[in-house]
């Protein structure tokens, strides 16, 4: 829930800007189409086509970057489509403007803000997500090879003895009592005989200290 709230706070303002700017640009395109003979539902359809073309082209540019598709620069087809949609949107906005510098600026603001919002969303979607750092996992008995201890045969390696000693110390610190053979065997996933050998080494070292 917290992660969703953080993501909403991060992306929400950009989405709100995109909706408001898109609505303003949509209105200008619809009015321009209506004034030039495209009445009724046709004026709405033209406005939808222009705005959705910009969104679709931006998403296609982002998909090209993710897949590593060649020709993703300014000459790519999605980029040309995006430029064409922006030009049409700006032309419709300027057509509705009052014949003055501020009239053109204010009329072009929705189209410019819509383009900025779409580019921001495209940029965030294309940004590589950081890979989670792998958690430090203590060595397991399988990673610690056994080495010969004496003429009686192979015994536990010094690394395994050291790891078992750390496990025993952690157990004593948490529970206030020495670890048992069964607890050590369950923690390390070793046989009863190996757990007994390790426990003997641990106790011998502790007594010597």
Describe this structure in words.
The protein has 209 residues and is mostly helical. It has two domains: 2-126; 141-208, Arc Repressor Mutant, subunit A (Orthogonal Bundle), CATH 1.10.10. Helices cover 71% and strands 3% of the residues. It has seven helices and two strands, in the order ααααββααα. Strands 1-2 form a two-stranded antiparallel sheet. A hairpin with a 2-residue loop joins β1 (147-150) and β2 (153-155). The relative contact order is 0.09.
Q: What amount of the residues lies in strands?
A: under 5%
Give the termini distance in whole angstroms: 52 Å
| Rg over CA atoms | 34 Å
Secondary-structure element series: HHHHEEHHH
Task: Please tally the β strands and state the result.
Answer: 2
Amount of helix: over 70%
The number of domains is 2
Q: Which structural class do you get from the secondary structure elements?
A: mainly alpha
The tally of helices reads 7
What characteristics describe this protein?
209 residues; Arc Repressor Mutant, subunit A; 7 helices; 3% strand; transmembrane helix; DUF2637; DUF2637 domain-containing protein; transmembrane
Topology, please?
Blueprint: H1 2-35, H2 41-67, H3 77-95, H4 101-126, E1 147-150, E2 153-155, H5 158-175, H6 181-188, H7 192-208
Antiparallel strand pairs: 1-2
Helix pairs in contact: 1-2, 1-3, 1-4, 2-3, 2-4, 3-4, 5-7, 6-7
Kindly summarize this structure in a few lines.
The protein has 209 residues and is mainly alpha-helical. It folds into two domains: 2-126; 141-208, Arc Repressor Mutant, subunit A (Orthogonal Bundle). It contains seven helices and two strands; from the N terminus they run ααααββααα.
């Amino acid at each position: 829930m917290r992660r969703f709230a953080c993501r909403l706070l991060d992306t929400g303002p950009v989405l709100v800007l995109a909706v408001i700017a898109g609505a303003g640009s949509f209105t200008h395109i619809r009015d321009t189409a209506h004034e030039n003979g495209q009445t009724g539902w046709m004026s709405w359809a033209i406005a939808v086509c222009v705005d959705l073309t910009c969104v679709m082209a931006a998403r296609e540019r982002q998909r090209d970057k993710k897949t590593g598709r060649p020709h993703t620069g300014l000459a790519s087809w999605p980029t040309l489509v995006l430029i064409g949609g922006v030009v049409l949107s700006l032309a419709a906005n300027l057509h509705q403007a009052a014949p003055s510098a501020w009239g053109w600026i204010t009329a072009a603001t929705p189209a410019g803000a819509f383009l900025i919002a779409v580019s921001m969303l495209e940029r965030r979607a294309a940004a590589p997500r950081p890979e989670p750092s792998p958690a430090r996992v203590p060595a397991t008995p399988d990673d610690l090879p056994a080495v010969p201890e004496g003429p009686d045969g192979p015994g536990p390696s010094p690394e395994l003895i050291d790891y078992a000693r750390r496990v025993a110390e952690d157990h004593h610190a948490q529970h206030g009592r020495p670890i048992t053979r069964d607890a050590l065997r369950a923690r390390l996933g070793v046989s009863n005989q190996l757990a007994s050998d390790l426990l003997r080494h641990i106790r011998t070292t502790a007594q010597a200290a």
